[in-house]
Amino acid sequence: MTDSTILQPEGLEQRYERYKEKIKHFTIMNDIFMRNVLKETACTEYILQVIMNRTDLKVIDQTLQKDYKNLQGRSAILDCVAKDAENNHFNVEIQGENDGASPKRARYHCGLLDMNLLNPGDFFDNLPETYVIFITKNDVLGYNLPINHIRRRSNETGEIFEDGQHILYVNSKKQDNTELGRLMHDLHCKEADEMYSNILATRVHQLKETEEGVNQMCQELEEIYNEGEQSGVQKGELKKARETTLALLEMGMSSEQIAKAVNLSIETIQNWISEASF
Question: In the CATH hierarchy, which top-level class contains the domain 232-278?
Answer without folding.
Answer: mainly alpha
